[in-house]
Amino acid sequence: MSTLEDLIAEVSVTKRLVSVANDRGGLIALVGDAGREGQQGDESYSYASFAATIEAAAAGLAWRGLRPRDIVGILVPDAVSFAVAVHAVRAAGGVPSPVDAALCAAETAGQLAESGARMVITAPPLAQAALAAADRSWVRQVFSFADAPGTTRFSDLLGIDVIRPSRGRPEDIAILPFSRGNDGRLRPAPVNNREFVEQLDRADQQARITGHDVVLALPPCGDGLSYALLIDGALLRGATVVAVRKQELSAGAAAHHGTVAIVPRACGLVIPPAVRVLEAS
User: Fold this and answer.
1) Domain of 213?
2) Predicted confidence pLDDT, tens digits, the chain (281 residues)
3) DSSP string, 58-91
4) How far is it, in rounded angstroms, from Cα 189 to Cα 199?
5) How many domains does the chain have?
């Protein structure tokens, strides 16, 4: 069976991804945005190191108090941080709730408060916004992928133990996006495991990503759901996902021989002709 057909039987996207990632070993899964503010080190992951980091970070989050079905806000500036954070939270039994970096301070704090999040995972240059929102919500712990005053380093979560992702139940919430209604208000729009797998299957059929693709991913955008579907689909298929910034898309395509780009809807960018565009909203 194909990766996604297997996934339908397993329910949990994270469990399936960790399983296939371990099988792929040293193949490159994620390449970090080397120019991002505060980034230190390579921040690239083979499939095997990606799986190991997810399992180790999950144990660290549990040790720090994350309980099954707890909500964790995800406010990060790049695809690598997004993928690691989302799957680490889910591996620990928690529910990732992506936060749109374009939200104003009041809306960011409002989403965290309404979701009941007690933790946030972030990275510069969004760490200060995450801390400010945390002060106006129930959040008590903020983890950052790079040094940021007032936060705990994400790397401090590693090395405690490992948690193997569970199969999960179809009705368990896989992701908690907040969508803007016609009245302009943000409201929670939870997606359970079964719904997420079904949407992932549809997105995969439309995206047609293969293990030979190099996927250039601009920063997370919108409510994070379609972005998560595209990133997860690429990783499940064995592609390499490269985090790039808006102004560096063309340079990234040349440097990494990119074949696909994940971009915000109606972003107005000039896309190299050899690169196929997938829109996330």
Assistant:
1) 3-280
2) 355 555 556 679 999 999 999 999 999 999 998 666 655 445 899 999 999 999 999 999 999 999 999 999 999 999 999 999 999 999 999 999 999 999 999 999 999 999 999 999 999 999 999 999 999 999 999 999 999 999 999 999 999 999 999 988 999 999 999 999 999 899 999 999 999 999 999 999 999 999 999 999 999 999 999 999 999 999 999 999 999 999 999 999 999 999 999 999 867 788 889 999 999 98
3) HHHHHHTT--TT-EEEEE-SSHHHHHHHHHHHHH
4) 14
5) 1
Q: How far apart are CA 236 and CA 170, in angstroms?
A: 19
Prediction pTM value: 0.95
Residue 268: how many CB atoms within 10 A of its CB?
7
- The CATH number linked to 171 is 3.40.50.12780
